[in-house]
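Recall the central idea of this unit: under ordinary conditions, the amino acid sequence of a chain determines the structure it adopts. In this exercise we apply that idea directly, starting from the sequence alone.
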Amino acid sequence: MKAYESNRTLFLFPFLGMTLVVVLYMFGLGVMLESWVYERNEQELHRVVEVTQKSMDSVGATADEMDLIADSVGLATANMRISIIDQEGLILGDSYYDEHQYINFDHQLMNTEVKLAIEHGHAKAIRDSRYLNAKTFFYAERFSQNGVFGVVRVSMPMEELNQAIYRLRWLLVAASFGGLLLLALLMATYAKKLRCTIVSERKLLEERVEERTAEIDMLQRLASMLAACNSIDEVQKIVADIVPKIIGEVPCAISLSNEKGGLIEQKIEWGGKWPGLTVFSANECWALRKGRYHISKDEHSSLSCQHMGKVDDKTLCVPLLAHGHAIGLLHVLLGDDNEQLHFNIVFTIAEHLGLALANLNMQAKLREQAIKDPLTRMYNRRFMDETLEKELNRSERHDKPFTMLLLDIDHFKPFNDNFGHDAGDFVLRRLGELLTDCVRKEDVACRVGGEEFAILLPETNVEDSKFCANKINQAVRQEELFFNGQSLGKLTVSIGIASFKIHGKDPISLYKAADVALYDAKRSGRDQAKVANIATASKVLDINFSKKNK
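Accordingly, the structure predicted from this sequence is:
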């Protein structure tokens, strides 16, 4: 009995000792593995923070662009929430929520990780998340970008980590009955699998982040190029080159408002022939009526834009807004292959296009105001001076003739005195129309000032210019003028003709020569055209003409 008890004791104590060693080993190993899982998770969160900060640095993001960056990085991550918080504790961007939801959030400085990150550069915390409704792992780092200071925070629910830890503990319990060797084998196999998964997921994450970063870079390039455009043609070339690189080869079109009739006209298309109407009213588009995007042929809506006609494919219409007003539409054809198209990117493209086209429209209006006479809508003296110098240089370069006509209405002052200035303005407008009809498309008709007009005739010699002048004299002479039901009688014009090199070798001398010829036509009886005298035009002229008898 004593021997049995002794053997049992000898067996029991070593067994208990070995059991204790194994239990302690397994416990220590479990603690180490749990710490390792947390560390790896923290490293992945740190990686996402770095990717977010690199995206901010690469595009030079402002506070208004933080939400777009958070969304872009968030799309490339799984079960991770990215938040960008300023130093006052206000959220600038969040991958889970829209901007209008930020006001419902608690002040972020109340959260330990945010406060410590601002103070020490980085911090982590595990706590219950009110918005994710779960215990969550938080990691935050401080940043500084374009004068904006704050914290980038990445969070992930603890459920996945807890599941991983639970599986590890189960393996340890099972391995304790199979021996240390089996435990080592199982852990080595699991660690290898876990490591491959992490590497694979990290590679996938990097690829997605790179893709989103490339999209952001292309959007920035698109915005900068559009801002530098001087015409619709340049806009078309840029969007046809850059936009397909962002959203793929998708049929798209741009339609702009026509101020004359209140219609919408298609101006630009790329990615294939646009199947919709090229001219339609604003009331035929739901996007313009709603003031926000609309999808025609959507399975959730039977309301389709009338301007898409019988097109069976789904189409996306996005208003092009500038200063709160819709100036046109961006159309995107949504086929089965484009279901994964990110609408936020399309909206960003539409925003850039709207601002660029509005700037072009403003530039065109300002340019027209600068070069057009407000009364007659003819080119003004400023435009004539610019064009005259350019045409003389071109004529010199190509050895081509160039002629200038200078016109003046005969006896216009008595006409204004008799009929009033409103009638005089009517006559000036009508004369502008007659002059435009009498000249070629390449000729330039201008109102110099008062009742004086000029016509620039490129590649035209003296004989041909005399034909043009006589044509103008005849057209004005035959014109019946009526204003407010009252006959204004007949008007005539006197015309002076001067040719480049023959009568003047620079803009000033050419203009003076034409002015001398005009005075000669008036002195000779008016209602006629006179060619400048070569002998007189060759002299340096300094003549002040009295026009009391006009």
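DSSP finds 14 helices and 18 strands in the chain.
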